[in-house]
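Standup notes
- DV: blocked on the single-chain target, sequence here:
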Amino acid sequence: MPTSDCSKLLEGSLDRATKRVQHTFVPDASLQERLAYSIGCPSNRAGARFLMACALAKLHETKLDIRKPFIEVYTGATKRNAYSGRGYDEQFIFDFITKHKLPCSPTTAFLTPGFRTKNIVLTKNQKLRGRPTQMYEYILAILAAVHQGQLSARYLIDESVRLLIIERDKRRKRLEILLEGLRKDTSELPLSSEDIVKLIEQHLQCKHASRLPVLVVAAAYRAAANKLGERILRLNPHTAADKQTGALGDVEITLLGDDNVVTAYEMKDKVVTRGDIDIAVEKIASGASIQNYVFVTTESIDPEVREYASSQYVELGGVEIAILDCVSFLRHFLHLFHRIRMDFLNQYQELVLSEPDSGVNQALKEAFLALRKVAEAVD
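- DV (later): unblocked, structure below
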């Protein structure tokens, strides 16, 4: 079967799972329980991608041994019935879960500690390093069941997709309920600029919030684009490195009607160092149109590093490097553009809710809506 059929196999699985979303494909109660735990494990979302990649490989090439997902690259050929689970994961599973917004790990499962570079057969007696231990034990039992013919690869992938659909729809429903609560309980008096600063500051203090400063700056430029005569060129994915995307920063700003980057923002959830400044200088050297490179940090700013950044101005021919505190940036923006403060807040909310889980997870999305509801509650 050609590899191009893998995407068709996944779409067929989605179709079957959607039609019987309330009914399991796995009649064995013990296997169903193990699979539900492995797919839905909240502390480790890699299990879903791993099992789907293995099941897809087995469905694609029936002679494969599902317990042997460790060869270096996917070539279309087998080696002692082994295969590249990572190849199936990165080439097919990633596109599938991204397209249908299924709640899985944003990166390949084969780079997690439990499955990284292991030249072994995944039999039930293997001890895989990773947490939670029970998830890995269950995954080995599921692979054994497929190998022994107790569970078909098709039912494994169909059930995995079904469980992910249920979880995805639950998350959407929770957000809809929170949004409806906001619409009902909002005061007629809009929040003040300082109220919004406090709200965003509380959100920034939540766990796993490293993507949020990017959205703060992006929302500011979206809200004020017409007044500034500038716009955001693009927002790169949270997991993409600048070297991969060719980006100058996390947020790139251009003049309206132009695609040349004039301002680049780079967000840091740690202290900005001289090394960070040196890297910025290298980027600026490769981007002739840039006029301003701004670090926005959630940590304290070292005066010596700030001075070092400003000292680059002459050497860079008039390109300025600055370091700003995230909350101070927001406070100044909201008071400078006081009349569009609610536009900023709505833009920030839209960006938070539309961000993939790899950048802003479900808990962070729900936390923002809950915090906003408290801030806007009618007394």
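- Follow-up: Confidence is low (pLDDT under 50) at residues 238-245.
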